[in-house]
Amino acid sequence: MARPEQNGLARLEAGLDSLAGARAAPRRRLRQQLLPPLVAIAVVLLGWQGLYLAGVEPDWVLPGPTEVWQSLAGAAGRGYVWSSIGNSLSRGALGFLVSVVIGTPLGVVVGRSQPVRTAVGPILSGLQNLPSVAWVPPAVIFFGVTPATIYTVILLGAVPSIANGLVSGLDQVPPLYLKVGRNLGAKGLSSVVHVLLPAALPGYVAGLKQGWAFAWRSLMAAEIIATSASLGHGLGQLLKQAQDTNDMALAFGTIALVLVVGIGVNQLVFAPVERHVLRSHGLALKRP
Amino acid sequence: MTVTTAKSTRQAVTLHGVGKVFDSGPPVLEDISLSVRAGEFVCLLGASGCGKSTLLNLIAGLDTPTAGQVELPGGHAALMFQESALFPWLSATRNVELALRLRGVPRKERQAEARRLLSLVRLEQARNKRAHELSGGMRQRVALARALAQGSEVLLMDEPFAALDAITRDVLHEELIRLWEATGFSTVFVTHNVREAVRLAERVVLLTSLPGRIAREWTVDIPHPRRIEDAAVARLSVEITEHLREEIRRHGQT
User: Fold this and answer.
1) Strand partners, A153
2) Which of A216, A282, B47, B206 has the smallest number of Cβ neighbours within 10 A?
3) Rounded to whole angstroms, how far apart are CA atoms B83 and B68?
4) CB contact at 8 A, B39 and B185
5) Distances (CA, A) of A20 to B67, B94, B137, B235
6) pLDDT at residue B37 is higher than 60
7) Reduced to 3 DSSP states, what percent helix, strand and coil does chain B have, rounded to the nearest 5?
8) How many angstroms separate the CA of residue A184 from the nearest CA in chain B?
9) Chain segment B147-197, per-residue pLDDT in tens
10) DSSP output for A45-95
11) Confidence class of residue B254 from pLDDT cuts 50, 70 and 90?
12) Tens-place pLDDT, residues B4-25
């Protein structure tokens, strides 16, 4: 029974749909994204070189960018820069993964159970405010200068961030989604799997990103303090070695490496995941 | 279409003296008795505070009445809201498929069924888009397809078109009536828009506010296709609006 007005309705709807179709936001070109930070870095390097040439401080206190580069290149030539990066990265990665395994169920329980939240919630937030370097002395007393010390400090730094991120993700799930889920027939576990967790994903990913940042800085703190021959050489130990040998060029160089690795992991691993999750939730960040 | 337009005598929803009180507050609903025939289209009309949304929650089983009973022989009612409430992390198709999955439809049949439902609301072109890529009207059509995927004979709609612009709302009225005539689900449609109620319903039920009670009801005999600007729709709307205003005035006298 094809009534003429129904054919008209189909075309009316098609017209409305095409008029209202959301326009895709244009992606920013790579050049626009890369150029400003590169310019900023160049300005810093030029200023540094200027101070160096002006001779404000003696060379051994303020080495120039080229000296720092040569010092790093020399250390790289002797091989221990690469092994330090490798050691620190694998410690950071393993510590982070264990933190995810512990922090995720912890976040779910704290987020979903009111008594647990009342009991544990303030402690979790409090731990986030405690600089994890504070854990190094007790960990050394307890475990000695061993890998266990390093991983303990990473966990105490990263687990609260990851758990808190998930808790705030769960808190931000619109109640309407849960209501719709119930009406669709989602109960218990299927409600958690199909509604709650996907809805909480943006907060969880933000927590993971922050968890990595905390894991990395906790690791550096632990490595600088807990140095021994038996413990492999990481970037923190390299910094400590620079301090012990009064080698400012190596110290600056190592700090640059710590920054580059930390930011690199963030940009190569977490930023794409976060972008994908936000975009798929229709929450893509609008940049200024 | 003869099957769906023939008046069924079977009840799809029956409310017996339903009341609702939240905690120790004043009653929100009081002594609501209402039955909706299978395939009937009923609009519940009322001002703010008449407990329209609460009543839909009670029928949907999302809340329990403090007095009386709700009978739903089909066992389940699909619910639609003013916001589409599509899950933003899923495409249009996946949203519909999730409803099928949670209802226990086997995996093999889901994809074809979701496609059929989306083409029913004429959105097969947009099936892979996510909610934020769709206009408000398209979202509500996907939400309608998802509600149909629940396989309930009763569709509860809580001001589903209130946030849409007038042109889109007009088109969705036509779309909804087309689907209702084609599939024959019973509809309880809540609105505060008198014209919308008369445009759509076979029966308009006016509720009082604080507490919500049934004040009056009208049978709408105007044949479909109706238009919101029809003279007959306007005439009945004027009459109902007068009663609605009278109800609201009573609250100004206390």
Assistant:
1) none
2) A282
3) 30
4) yes
5) 46, 22, 9, 33
6) yes
7) 40, 25, 35
8) 6
9) 999 989 999 999 999 989 998 999 999 999 999 998 889 999 999 999 999
10) HHHHHHHHHHTSS-TTTS--HHHHHHHHHHHHHTTHHHHHHHHHHHHHHHH
11) low
12) 445 667 889 999 999 999 888 8
| Chain B CB within 8 Å of residue A273 CB | no
Within an 8 Å CB–CB cutoff, is residue B182 touching chain A?
A: no
Q: Which pLDDT band holds residue B51 (cuts at 50, 70, 90)?
A: confident
B-chain CB neighbours of A17 within 8 Å are 123, 125-126, 135, 137-138
The reply to whether residue A182 touches residue B62, judged by beta carbons under 8 angstroms, is: yes
CB pairs under 8 A between A and B: 86
Q: How distant is the Cα of A211 from the closest Cα of chain B, in angstroms?
A: 24
The tokens for B156 are: 């509860």
* A164-198: pLDDT as tens digits: 999 999 999 999 999 999 999 998 888 888 999 89
Residue with tokens 């413990």: A231
Is the CA virtual torsion B165, B170, B176, B179 positive or negative?
Answer: negative
- Comparing alpha-carbon positions, the chain B residue that sits nearest to A1 is B1
Residue listed under structure tokens 């109620």: B197
Domains identified in chain A and CATH numbers: 61-280 (1.10.3720.10)
CATH architecture of B18-76+154-254: 3-Layer(aba) Sandwich (3.40)
Domain ranges of chain B: 18-76+154-254, 86-151
Give dist(CA B90, CA A239) in Å, integer: 48
Is the CB of residue B227 less than 8 Å away from at least one CB of chain A?
A: no
Tell me the nearest-neighbour CA distance from A281 into chain B, angstroms. 5
